[in-house]
Amino acid sequence: MEYAKALVPVSVVRRVSIVGKSFSWLALPAAQPRPFKMTTYDRCQRIGLMASSLEDLLSKTKDSLFLTCPLLTVVLEEDGTLVESEDFFCSLPNNTQFMVLEKGQEWAPVQAKKTEVVKLTFDLYKLHPKDFIGCLNIKARLYGMYTVSYDIECMGAKHVLTSSLCCLAHVTNTVGHLLLCGSSLILQYFSESDS
């Protein structure tokens, strides 16, 4: 060190050190705080934070979520990518969603919510355009996993319908004859009792 001081005059060393300090101030401006979203391991707590560095994000996360573990890991919430370098952190866009993991915790993808218990589907279709009624397919989907279906084919529905209408016509005809006979018998009975 003494040898270097002997070769270079003191005024040059001062100027170089001043230039070095001013260059470092110009080249590395203070990072502006950016917005980020942070969630816990189980995704039950979510907070929004403003942080300028990864260390700043970790300290504000500890304070906001009341975390006591000294070793915290930050990952991207969407895919679990580990965020451990300042360069990678600075390359991320604003409003990036992070997940903080304590010791022993691992990232897991978001579980799809099962809201469907039973889904019934009724399909009415015709095998031939001239069919009168057609066929009915009933399909039940249970818990989004199991499927049960039943197919009702009404191929002779037109014949069954016409036969039932003919039978109904005969029954109404018979009932009509019975009513006429019954009313004529009642009239004869009352007319004989009057005379």
UniProtKB/TrEMBL annotation:
A biological process from GO: apoptotic process
CDD domains named among the record's database cross-references: CIDE_N
Positions of the CIDE-N domain: 32-109
SMART domains: CAD
Domain of life, per lineage: Eukaryota
Record's keyword terms, sorted: Apoptosis
PANTHER family in the record: CELL DEATH ACTIVATOR CIDE, LIPID TRANSFERASE CIDEA
Name the record gives this protein: CIDE-N domain-containing protein
